[in-house]
Amino acid sequence: MQNATQLKELIHRIDGKGYKAYKHLELPFIFNGFVLFIDHVQGDPYAAPSALRARIRLSDTSISPRALENETRKLAAEDFLTRLFLFNSGKICKGIRGTGTSGLISIQKPGQEILKRSSVVLNDEYLEFRCYASLPARGRTILGSVAESMFLSELTDIVQLSSNFDSSIQNRLTLHADIYEDYCSLRDTLSRHDLVAFIPDGAILPRKSGIDAQPLNNSDGPVVPFRSPESLEITLQTPNKGPVCGMGIPKGVTVIAGGGFHGKSTLLNAIQIGIYGHLPLDGRELTATVPDAVKIRAEDGRSIQNVNISPFIRNLPFGKDTTAFSTVNASGSTSQAANIMEAIETGTTLLLIDEDTSATNFMIRDDKMKAIVRKEPITPLIDVIRSLYRDQGISSIIVTGGAGDYFSVADTVILMEDYLPEEITSKARTEIRDVENTFTVNPESLKRRVKLPSPRKGNKENFAAKGQHTLQIGRTFVDISALEQVAEVYQTECIAFLLKQYNDAMASGSTPMASVVERIFQRFTSSGFRNIKRGNLAVPRKQEVMFAINRARGIQSWGTGK
Ligand code: ADP
Ligand code: MG
């Protein structure tokens, strides 16, 4: 291993040379209390920045043993340390100096969710930051003095400050882990209480804006903290905060009604992202939802390959088969039907549906329409939502402002008024509609085998994220913008990474997609990020991986057992 003097000498030697000479830095160095691995050197100052890892012995950090007490606290600590490194690099790095992004030192930029991230690896031996540096140049000429400052002064200080900190940061780390641990315990206790979601009293659900996930605060206007209606109130125990009181949403069919602009969608959005923990002071940090919950929406234009949508749609014109339905351009209703069937294929136990983003003809059909329209291929959701729970054990939470018919199929009706919930089940539901239909799913149709489109691009394989909402497989772009539960671009990066594993594992073609994804997930989550030397990944759910596969145009799929 090279030391600081050798690194300095190396930089002097390549100073003023062409950019390619930076390749000489692809070595491990040891200096100022940490080991620096330069895993990848970028090709030019405009390319994605160079990948570094800075590793410090755990005994040389101020991380307390408590942070490694269990996997939950460790995950929270890794998330916290990513944010700390990001903060310190903002303070210490001198910014862009030269062509392109020359001079920047960066790391994942997390949002409000606490996620399993590859940017920090913490274990019994060491703490490792996986960060990025844009190696500096003017044009293609290496700026040695800037590089020297970046490595030997700025990066060194950032790593120091992010691994050796005072008690105030120590306390924040503890709080971060405490809250995350409490969130996980709430989430994991839901099903024991026959609940699908929990929103604590005092939670702040609204966000600053549609593009800013920070909590709305009183300087933006009056904010109404959440308060459970008495009848849905439950107190749950948490390991750190102790008892937490709030609203439990029971299993079954729940309808959230209310006038426009009274906070219905805000509540549903908090529930759908309650599959993940949130930062202290986020407002939703103890809002918890069963981890397999899936937001369902209409998504016209998407491609569908070989999905059995017959529980919802039958007898299409010209006898088009709906037990193995394919289209390159789905309608609102067929897309929503496929989204539900694919969610069932992932093993979901909770569907989340907002009228705002649904196809009306998929949701309801009123009596006048029934009388006039004789050939209607669609069985609207309202006709099967109860049997979906009775026969398949799949609960649903439906937000509606217009479709009062849903009251008669609900187990629980919640009215949102002035941003506060009220339980009005007995008032709203004058009758409960008996379940006429059974909701049967041919088990074979949940075992589709799916092969990805060709990953080849030129003579290389290509699996990549293009921002948060697009994936690329070979030459095929996959639009995943409808997947509202993908929280960050780093999850999209990780989906791309897992698609490569999927493609390799799928080669034989005989195993169902769900099992292949399950298997790669098990392998992936049990081995952690220690041996995956990339800093830009955050773990998604297996649901989103399968949903991404389903959206790729040009997948081949077989086996639905008509
Ligand atoms: P709906 O779906 O019922 O039409 P939304 O959930 O979209 O209503 O909320 C309407 C507006 O009210 C949004 O701008 C939202 O940020 C705001 N809002 C929601 N809940 C609260 C709350 N508890 N306190 C203050 N403002 C809120
Ligand atoms: Mg709404």
CATH fold naming of the largest domain = Rossmann fold
Given as residue ranges, the uncertain stretches (5+ residues, pLDDT < 50) are none
Measured on Cα atoms, how large is the radius of gyration? 26 Å
Q: What percent of residues are in strands? A: 15-25%
CATH structural architecture of the largest domain: 3-Layer(aba) Sandwich
CATH superfamily of the largest domain: P-loop containing nucleotide triphosphate hydrolases
Question: How would the blueprint of this fold be written?
Answer:
Blueprint (H helix, E strand, L loop, with lengths): L3 H11 L13 E4 L2 E7 L9 E8 L13 H22 L12 E2 L6 E2 L5 E3 L3 E8 L3 E2 L2 E2 L1 H20 L3 H23 L5 E6 L6 E3 L2 E4 L17 E6 L3 E9 L2 E6 L5 H9 L4 E2 L9 E2 L4 E3 L7 E4 L17 E3 L4 H14 L4 E5 L5 H4 L3 H6 L8 H12 L2 E6 L11 E6 L2 E4 L1 H4 L20 E3 L4 E2 L2 E2 L1 E3 L4 E4 L2 E4 L9 H17 L7 H15 L14 H10 L4 E3 L4
The structure holds adenosine-5'-diphosphate and magnesium ion.
Description of the structure:
By secondary structure, this protein is of the alpha+beta class. The protein has 3 domains: 2-165, no CATH class; 169-442, P-loop containing nucleotide triphosphate hydrolases (Rossmann fold, 3-Layer(aba) Sandwich); 449-558. Strands 1, 2, 3, 4, 6 and 7 form a 6-stranded antiparallel β-sheet that branches. Strands 18-21-22-15-23-24 form a 6-stranded mixed β-sheet, with helices on both faces. Helix 1 (4-14) runs antiparallel to helix 3 (144-163), helix 2 (71-92) crosses helix 3 and helix 2 packs across helix 4 (167-189). The protein is globular, with a radius of gyration of 26 Å. The termini are far apart. The mean pLDDT is 95. Adenosine-5'-diphosphate (ADP) is lined by residues 205-206, 216, 223-224, 258, 260-266, 416, 419.
